[in-house]
Task: inverse folding
């Protein structure tokens, strides 16, 4: 049975870089935001003008070149998806895992869950970092953006849970600061062996024609980077007592892999590790 990994979460939460990183794994090919490709009003523009993460235009891309007609057709999303999987299997074989980073709680997920082995990675970016980045782009009030972050995540998660999908939460912060740690957790969840190739997204086999423009940014593709500029924002700091109501929900989504039980003995910072080093090497 074809295995499908789906990246869910709000826009601007790092799904494109995660798609590219997972697409470096020998058993995974990422295809970006499949739903958007299927539903773009101007498919011809997308296929002719957008550069795929492989460096070619959609019409010349190894994967997407055979999908333009299907994408532009009047078929239902499920039907288009079936045809996409046929082409995917022809090109990559039965055992390759398909990765879709369409992000939203689209109803075709129920179909995918029924017909295939679907695993969902719910990726969330810390509300402070998300608000700052959206504010820098749109200049919309931070309070409004904060509320949007909260309500949209609540709604998205509610629908995904209602669909009864296998979901793993991961934070963009966890991923960009401790990429190996989180990619190992994702490997366990999706049933693949960890490969350190995933630490260098630039070498991706993913074909993303619809996704964040970082897909073609040579500098951003080199490794995982974290933009810490939100920490310098006075505007955000002044609102922090109001935003504190988001903290618990934020922790449960963004820091689920590094908080809780492992808090006092986490990764390379643990007390246990320090104790054993001190014992063996003296203070
Ligand atoms: Zn391509």
Result:
């Amino acid at each position: 049975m074809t295995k499908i990994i789906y990246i869910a979460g709000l826009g601007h939460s790092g799904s494109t870089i995660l798609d590219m990183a997972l697409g470096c794994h020998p058993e995974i090919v990422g295809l970006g935001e499949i739903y958007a490709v299927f539903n773009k009003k101007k498919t011809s523009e997308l296929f002719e003008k957008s550069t795929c993460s492989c460096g070619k235009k959609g019409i010349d891309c190894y994967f997407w070149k055979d999908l333009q007609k299907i994408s532009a057709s009047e078929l239902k999303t499920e039907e288009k998806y079936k045809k996409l999987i046929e082409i995917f299997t022809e090109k990559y074989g039965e055992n390759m895992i398909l990765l879709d980073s369409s992000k939203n709680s689209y109803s075709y997920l129920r179909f995918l869950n029924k017909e295939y082995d679907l695993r969902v990675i719910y990726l969330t970016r810390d509300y402070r970092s998300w608000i700052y980045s959206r504010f820098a782009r749109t200049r919309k009030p931070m309070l409004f953006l904060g509320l949007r972050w909260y309500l949209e995540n609540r709604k998205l998660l509610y629908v995904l849970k209602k669909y009864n999908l296998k979901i793993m939460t991961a934070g963009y912060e966890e991923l960009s600061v401790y990429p190996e740690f989180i990619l190992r957790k994702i490997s366990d969840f999706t049933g693949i062996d960890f490969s350190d190739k995933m630490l260098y997204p630039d070498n991706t086999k993913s074909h993303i024609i619809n996704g964040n423009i970082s897909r073609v940014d040579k500098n951003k593709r080199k490794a995982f980077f974290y933009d810490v500029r939100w920490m310098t924002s006075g505007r955000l700091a002044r609102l922090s007592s109001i935003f504190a109501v988001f903290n618990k929900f934020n922790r449960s989504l963004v820091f689920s892999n590094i908080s809780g039980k492992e808090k006092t003995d986490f990764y390379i910072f643990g007390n246990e590790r320090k104790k054993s080093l001190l014992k063996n090497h003296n203070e």
About this structure: The domain at 3-281 is CATH 3.40.50.300 (Rossmann fold). The first helix runs from residue 15 to 22. The CA atoms of residues 37 and 227 lie 29 Å apart. The first strand starts at residue 3 and ends at 8.
